Amino acid sequence: MKEKCVLYDRDCIDCGECEFCDLDPTKLCDNCGKCLENLNMDYAAIKIDGLEKDLSDDCCDYHHSHNSAHNKR
After folding, report:
1. Does residue 64 form part of some domain?
2. Residue ranges of the alpha helices (H) in 1-73?
3. Residue 40, pLDDT score
4. Does residue 67 have a pLDDT over 60?
5. Among 12, 36, 13, which residue's Cα sits nearest to residue 23?
6. The domain containing residue 9 runs over which residues?
7. Is residue 5 part of a domain?
8. How many domains does the chain fold into?
9. What does the H/E/C string look like for 51-68?
10. Backbone torsions φ then ψ of 34, nearest 5 degrees
11. pLDDT in tens, 42-58
């Protein structure tokens, strides 16, 4: 079964249009979030296709410092 297109009501045809930046159609999206900052709305929503969780010991410094902050309370 083909995936659904995220822009149009159809099956995905691998056109790549969804990969480009909304603010600069000549640039591939790099998830900078600037398009969300420029909305004149109280909130914005994005569709999350899935979550990834890294359970390895060296996942990130933030994770370790975040846990340390909780341990100091």
Report:
1. no
2. 34-37, 61-71
3. 73
4. no
5. 36
6. 1-30
7. yes
8. 1
9. CCCCCCCCCCHHHHHHHH
10. -60, -30
11. 776 777 878 888 766 55
